[in-house]
Amino acid sequence: MSKTGMSKGGLPDLPPLREVVARHGLSASKALGQNFLFDEQLLDRIAAIPGKLAGANVLEVGPGPGGLTRALLRAGANVTAIEMDKRCLPALAELGEAFPGQLKVIEGDALKVDPATLFDGPWHVVANLPYNVGTALFTGWLSGKDWPPAWQSLTLMFQLEVAERIVAGTDSDAFGRLAVLAQWRACPRIAMKVHRSAFTPPPKVMSAIVHVTPAAMPEGVVPRMLERVTEAAFGQRRKMLRQSLKGLPGALDALEKLGIDAQRRAETLTVADFVAIARVLSPPA
Ligand code: SAM
After folding, report:
1. Is 281 annotated in some ligand binding site?
2. Is 9 annotated among the ligand-binding residues?
């Protein structure tokens, strides 16, 4: 970083992101899913989505040259960032110097890091996720055995189509396993749509930021059973439940017990219906 002074607001004066990228030769790598955000106002708006972050722990996956990271640091967060691309580390080290004690960078693959080992207290996740690993990370955060989870909120960039699947309601083509997983014990919403032109380089499709907070976990449901029910039901989503669930022991009896017509198709059920089926099939605690 060229010398950083302090602005009037007491925050470090940082060089423009494009300058940082040019100086460190951070040409975007397609293989690493790199689409950078440089608009600082947009980045500040994203960092504001989880609410006040002053003094809060934040996990950021894929900080890249540090655009979102600097917005989180400006908001007063203590950021732990996991980045796979070694080339970004010097730029992130400079950012850490500008915000002493607020930024910790871990070099590595976020899929292999257990975030529970990173923080003493609760944490938020805020990330412009690499699209190739975004869904895997998201489903991992939502599938934990312990609930409420250690994370307080997730604020994540997805392709718009994926974001729509996460928040989808019954009776839509987008409604499926991802919606049930995201909604049965959490509340997801699309907080902001982001035009492709906001990124460098622009991706082919539109993006959206999904904000998720944990909700109460329904009683008597084994998470793995809910996964098995949705896997079977949506695995053959065009078929009637009578057909798609027949390989799952007890499932057809559960439908009858609950008064759910076995001639219906998976996408006509509500999240509450799936929870009810899984509850009937879950062994007593
Ligand atoms: N946060 C930056 C921004 O908003 O401009 C960069 C976002 S870019 C879409 C995704 C970032 O994730 C890249 O910096 C990429 O190197 C990093 N990345 C890709 N796969 C990763 C993984 N498995 N673990 C950690 N970081 C990864």
Report:
1. no
2. no
Atom in ligand 1 nearest the alpha carbon of residue 62: 12
Tell me the domain boundaries of the chain. 5-214, 223-281
- Answer whether 0.90 is exceeded by the pTM: yes
Residue 116's SS3 state is: helix
Ligand 1 site residues (CB inside 6 A) read 32-37, 61-64, 67-68, 82-85, 88, 109-111, 128, 130, 133
CATH number, domain 223-281: 1.10.8.100
How far is Cα 255 from Cα 278, in angstroms, rounded to an integer? 10
What H or E segment, with its residue span, contains residue 118?
Answer: none
Whole-number Å distance, alpha carbon 226 to ligand 1 midpoint, is 31
31 Cα distance to chain centroid: 20
Q: Which atom of ligand 1 is nearest to the CA of 110?
A: 24
Residue with tokens 């934040």: 58
Q: 64 C-alpha to center of ligand 1: Å?
A: 5
Say how far apart CA 200 and CA 104 lie, in whole Å: 25
pLDDT tens digit string along 206-246?
A: 999 999 999 999 999 999 999 999 999 999 989 999 999 99
Which residues have a Cβ under 8 Å from the Cβ of 74 and sit 6 or more positions away? 11, 44, 47
Residue indicated by tokens 């509500």:
270
On whether the 5-214 domain is CATH 3.40.50.150, my answer is yes
List the structure tokens of 46: 């994203």
Q: Is residue 128 part of an annotated ligand binding site?
A: yes
**Which ligand 1 atom is at minimum distance from the Cα of 64?**
14
pLDDT tens digit sequence for 102-132: 999 999 999 999 998 999 999 999 999 988 8
